[in-house]
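User: Structure please.
Assistant: Input sequence and predicted structure:
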Amino acid sequence: MHEISQRFFFDAAHTLRREIEAEGSKRVHGHTYYAEVFVRGEPGADTGMVMDLGYIRREVNTLREQLDHHFLDEVQGLGPATLENLCTFIWKALKPKIPALSAVMVERHAIGDKCVYRPAA
């Protein structure tokens, strides 16, 4: 079994209600988010690929337009802009188009936060 991935980033602002580090989170603030989507499968005998990365890039770019330079609080279907919700949002947007999607990771390098969403089989 092989797993390929495609990384992308987006810059976005949001607010967040938290118990800890609450003051700064309540104000509008932004991050550079790095995301990676993983696709799992066996390479096709005819192509030698699990999936054409160009196809994955095309779908990721369409999704990226919904997030990049947006106020995440206003993105329909996202909910509070947590790493967990971003992973789920990306999963739900891409899974119908990329059935072999196996995981989604979102991180903020600058502060060392990361979330990986990998549904149970």
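The mean pLDDT is 93.
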